[in-house]
Q: What sequence folds into this?
C-alpha cells in the first residue's frame, strides 16, 4: 500500500472507532437524563459491550501496524498528531495485563455503588476495603506507565500532561498562603452579605428563560446543542455539531441552575468551536481537564460573578425573577452571590475557598499513592487538613472524606485540574485584556469578542496542542499563580472593603 492508501485506511479505522464512541456517548447522555428506571440495567450492559469493542480496537494489532507504518512519515499534521494520540492510548492500555484491567473495571463500578451507600450512611469503614484496592491498582498502573520523579506524576499525566508534583508543590503553597491571608481579612471585615435574599422562591420556568438569554449572549449554538434536566449537571460532546449541556433547578436557590448553566456552557463553547477538520479523529476534543475547566470557570466566575455583569444585567435578571427581587439593591445582590464562607462541601464552595478544598485532596492522594499514609487513616487526616486549611472540622464522613465520587471511580490525579483551570483562567484573562476591553464587552451584552478570542487562542486547536503549550503560546509563560491571586485580591478587597 502507498502512504496515501495507508493514511486513508487509518482514517477509516478512526471513523469506525468514532462510531462506537459516539454511540457510547449518546447512551451515556440518555442514562443521565431521560432513561426510564427499568431500562437502566440493559442499557448499562450495552454500554459495557460497546466500550469493550472500542477498547479492543484501541489496542489491536491493526492499530499497532498503522502506528508503525505512519509515525513520523505523514506530511499531514492531523494524521501525525492522531497517530501520536493513538500510540499513547495503545501503550497505556497494553502495559496493563488484561486480567488486571478487567478486575479493575469491575472494581470501579462496584466501588462507586458501595461508595454511594457508604456516603448515605456516613460509614467510611464500609468503603475502606474497596478504596484500598483502588489505591493499590492505581499504584501498580502508575508503575507500569512509568514516571521520572514522583509516582503520582504518572497519574497526573492522564488528566494534565506536562504538570508534575514538582510544579504543584511550588505553586499550591503560594496560592494557599495568599488565600489564607485574604480569608482572615474577610473574616474580620464588617461587611456581612445577606444570602437569605437569594433563597426567594424562583420558579423553574423563569430560571430557565433567564439562562437561555444568557446562553444566547454567550453565543452557545442551539443548532449544535441542547439543554436538558439532570441530577448531577454535566456537558457532553456527542460530536462537534452536537454538544449538549444539562442542569438541575432548585426553586429555592437559583444559583445552582443559573451559574451551573453558564459553567457547562463554558465547556460547551470550547467543544463547539473546535476546528471541524478534526472531526472523526481523537483530536476532536478539549486538550485537558485543566484547560477545559479554565473555560467553564472563566465564564462562570470571571464573567458570571463579575460586578459589571450584574450592573448591566440586573434588569434582565429582574425581568425573569419573582417580584421580591424588585426591592433588593444591586449591591446587596452582588455581595450575596459573592459571599465567602468556609464550608464542607467542595461543589458548594465559594470562589475563594474552592482551591483550598482541592489542595486538601491533592495532599492526601499524593501521600496515598506514595505510600506515606494508609487508607484507614483518611477520615482523620481529612478532618485535620480541613481544619488546618479552612478552619472548620466536618462532623461526619458524609460531609468529609466521603463527599466526592472521584476516588470511588479510581480517578486519582484528577482533582488538581480544577485548581489548575482556575489559574489558567486568570492567566488567559490577563492576556485577553491586552486586546479586548472585557468590561465594555460585558456591558454591550454581546460576548462574541470574548468567545472569538477564546476560539482563536484555545478552542480551535482541540488536542492538536498540549495544555502547557497552549498556555505558553497564549501567555508567553508557564503556570503562574500570581494572576489568580491578584484577581481574587482585587475582587474581594472591593466586596469586603479591606
Ligand atoms: Zn466543569
A:
Amino acid at each position: 500500500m502507498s502512504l496515501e492508501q495507508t493514511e486513508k485506511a487509518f482514517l477509516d479505522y478512526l471513523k469506525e472507532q468514532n462510531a462506537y464512541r459516539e454511540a457510547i456517548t449518546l447512551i451515556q447522555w440518555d442514562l443521565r437524563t431521560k432513561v426510564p428506571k427499568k431500562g437502566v440495567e440493559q442499557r448499562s450492559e450495552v454500554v459495557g459491550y460497546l466500550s469493550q469493542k472500542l477498547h479492543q480496537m484501541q489496542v489491536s494489532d491493526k492499530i499497532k501496524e498503522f502506528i508503525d507504518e505512519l509515525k513520523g512519515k505523514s506530511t499531514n499534521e492531523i494524521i501525525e498528531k492522531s497517530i501520536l494520540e493513538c500510540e499513547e492510548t495503545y501503550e497505556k492500555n497494553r502495559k496493563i495485563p488484561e486480567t488486571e484491567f478487567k478486575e479493575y473495571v469491575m472494581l470501579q463500578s462496584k466501588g462507586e455503588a458501595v461508595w454511594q451507600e457508604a456516603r448515605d450512611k456516613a460509614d467510611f469503614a464500609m468503603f475502606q476495603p474497596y478504596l484500598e484496592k483502588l489505591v493499590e491498582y492505581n499504584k501498580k498502573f502508575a508503575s507500569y506507565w512509568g514516571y521520572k520523579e514522583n509516582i503520582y506524576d504518572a497519574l497526573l499525566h492522564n488528566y494534565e500532561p506536562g504538570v508534575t508534583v514538582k510544579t504543584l508543590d511550588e505553586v499550591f503553597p503560594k496560592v494557599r498562603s495568599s488565600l489564607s491571608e485574604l480569608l482572615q481579612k474577610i473574616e474580620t471585615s464588617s461587611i456581612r452579605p445577606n444570602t437569605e435574599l437569594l433563597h426567594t422562591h424562583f420558579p423553574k420556568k423563569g430560571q430557565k428563560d433567564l439562562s437561555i438569554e444568557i446562553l444566547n449572549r454567550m453565543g452557545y449554538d442551539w443548532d449544535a446543542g441542547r439543554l436538558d434536566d439532570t441530577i448531577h449537571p454535566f456537558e457532553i460532546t456527542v460530536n462537534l455539531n452536537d454538544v449538549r449541556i444539562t442542569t438541575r433547578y432548585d426553586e429555592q436557590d437559583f444559583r445552582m441552575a443559573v451559574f451551573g448553566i453558564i459553567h457547562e456552557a463554558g465547556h460547551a463553547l470550547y467543544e463547539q468551536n473546535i476546528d471541524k477538520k478534526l472531526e472523526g479523529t481523537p483530536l476532536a476534543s478539549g486538550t485537558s481537564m485543566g484547560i477545559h475547566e479554565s473555560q467553564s470557570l472563566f465564564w462562570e466566575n470571571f464573567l458570571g460573578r463579575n460586578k459589571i455583569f450584574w450592573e448591566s444585567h440586573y434588569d434582565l435578571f429582574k425581568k425573569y425573577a419573582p417580584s421580591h427581587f424588585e426591592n433588593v439593591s444591586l449591591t446587596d445582590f452582588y455581595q450575596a452571590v459573592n459571599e465567602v464562607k468556609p464550608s464542607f462541601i467542595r461543589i458548594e464552595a465559594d470562589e475563594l475557598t474552592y482551591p483550598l478544598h482541592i489542595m486538601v485532596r491533592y495532599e492526601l492522594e499524593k501521600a496515598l499513592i506514595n505510600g506515606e499514609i494508609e487508607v484507614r487513616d483518611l477520615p482523620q487526616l481529612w478532618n485535620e487538613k480541613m481544619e488546618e486549611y479552612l478552619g472548620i472540622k466536618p462532623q461526619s464522613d458524609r460531609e468529609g472524606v466521603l463527599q466526592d465520587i472521584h476516588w470511588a471511580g479510581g480517578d486519582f490525579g484528577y482533582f488538581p485540574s480544577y485548581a489548575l483551570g482556575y489559574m489558567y483562567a486568570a492567566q488567559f484573562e490577563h492576556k485577553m485584556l491586552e486586546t479586548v476591553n472585557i468590561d465594555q464587552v460585558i456591558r454591550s451584552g454581546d460576548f462574541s469578542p470574548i468567545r472569538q478570542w477564546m476560539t482563536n487562542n484555545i478552542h480551535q486547536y482541540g488536542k492538536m496542542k498540549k495544555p502547557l503549550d497552549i498556555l505558553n503560546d497564549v501567555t508567553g509563560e508557564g503556570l503562574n499563580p500570581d494572576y489568580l491571586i491578584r484577581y481574587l485580591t482585587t475582587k474581594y478587597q472591593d466586596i469586603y472593603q479591606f
Notes: The two ends are 71 Å apart (CA to CA). Residues 263, 267, 293, 296 surround zinc ion (CB under 6 Å). The chain has two domains: 3-124, 165-496. DSSP finds 20 helices and three strands in the chain.
